[in-house]
Amino acid sequence: MNHIRITILIILSAILFVGCAVTPIQREINLPSQDILKPLTDDTKVRLIIFNNSNKFWTGIDGSGKINLSLDGKGICRLSVGEYVIVETNPGKHTIDLEHRDFALFKSSHSISTIEKEHYVQVYATPVSNIAEITAKPEAFESSYDAIRF
Known about the structure:
Strand order of the largest sheet: 8-7-1-4-9
Distance between the termini: 46 Å
Helix content: 10-25%
Structural class: alpha+beta
Order of helices and strands: HEHEEEEEEEHE
Mean pLDDT: 86
Number of strands: 9
Low-confidence stretches: 11-19
Largest sheet: 5 strands, mixed
């Protein structure tokens, strides 16, 4: 009887964790080199370094910290906790769309304005939404975050 309870618990846990992962978004834009030390490929553009700073404890276990990322309606990638992606775009106003799955699917849109040649944009999942904000470069960024792999 005890092994039946354990089996049921394992099955229910698997269903819960599978439900938390969001399907990766299709990439619709070309991305430059993801080497953080390389300069812009086009001097008329600005560089966004978008990094997933979701809480590893709360969102890393069940995959709910994986965030689909779009810029101006075009898919970029799915960022896992601790990953970053570099995007080159025109200066000005942009919309970042985020999507992650927790107990439900959470979608949000965020407006940013790019003025400088380089911006760090922190994104993270919360239990009921997503956040995107321009921020200063985090300390020890290169050793704390990994470039997205395609």
